[in-house]
Amino acid sequence: MAAHPDFGRVVEEMIYQWKSSPRYSFGTRVLEGSATRGELAIYAVQTYHRNLYSSRFAAANHARCPIPEVRRALLQVVQEEEMKLPGEPPSHADLMLLFTEALGLKREEVIQARPLPSTLVFIDTIMRLSEGHWLEGIAFRASELAASGRLARWREALKKHYGFPDEALAWWQTHEVADVDHGKIALEVYRKYARDEAEQTMAIRAIQRMIAAWDVFNDGVLKAGDEVRQGLDVGFPLPPESF
């Protein structure tokens, strides 16, 4: 393909098409209120474990980035995602632990839980992208544009259908803003620095990999729910009567 003069717009359209896809997903079940509390527990535990890699991924992307202004933005992401010391504001992974506790899970069981194979695929994808060209690493930030409006709907659905209090939903409230801000980093990068055909092609392939990884992650949650119904182990003890 020839280099697009406004590549940020191309990226935005890719994410919009993915976000608008009629593909039935775990998120659809949450918004409908048809997901079980057990499935929410599986999602929360897997999200906690992928969040543990968020700071490492952003740090690796930061280290490879040659543009000072972008590095500063990525450094801010690292600080938001990093596990914090006692007395410091909670990290994003810490915020998900608040939700798991509201579900009736013990904190230590969540921390010691075994990630699903689909979660490991997701983690491997983001880490491999971070080890490539810095424009490939920015693909994860681009995928966060899909959060616009969606996380607010999730938060309202979790309150309406499941009765969770606001304090248990701090992860969603934080990401309603943070993910959109992170996505804007990617759009600005792709507008300014993915200039030629080779760079734009590389970025598109990285975004496609990132979208596929998200779909694998979410499909893994649904599959794990089915496995629980078959009496199989999903790597941590589920709350009683959660299915």
Explain what you see:
- With 243 residues, this protein is an all-alpha fold.
- It has one domain (7-17, 36-229): Up-down Bundle (Heme Oxygenase, Chain A).
- It has twelve helices and no strands.
- It has helices at 7-19, 26-32, 37-51, 54-64, 68-81, 92-102, 107-111, 117-130, 134-143, 150-162, 170-193, 197-229.
- α6 packs antiparallel against α11.
- It is globular, with a radius of gyration of 18 Å.
- It starts with 6 loop residues before the first helix and ends in a 14-residue tail after the last helix.
- The mean pLDDT is 92.
Question: Helix/strand-derived class?
Answer: mainly alpha
The largest pleated sheet is described as:
none
Count of distinct strands: 0
Q: Proportion of β residues?
A: under 5%
Topology as H/E string?
HHHHHHHHHHHH
CATH fold-level label: Heme Oxygenase, Chain A
Q: What's the name of the CATH homologous superfamily?
A: Heme oxygenase-like
**pLDDT < 50 runs, ≥5 residues:** none
Number of domains: 1
CATH class group: Mainly Alpha
Shape-level CATH architecture: Up-down Bundle
Instruction: Estimate the mean pLDDT confidence.
Output: 92
State the helicity in percent bands: 55-70%
What is the CA–CA distance across the termini? 49 Å
* Individual helix count: 12
So what's the overall shape?
A: globular
Give the C-alpha Rg. 18 Å
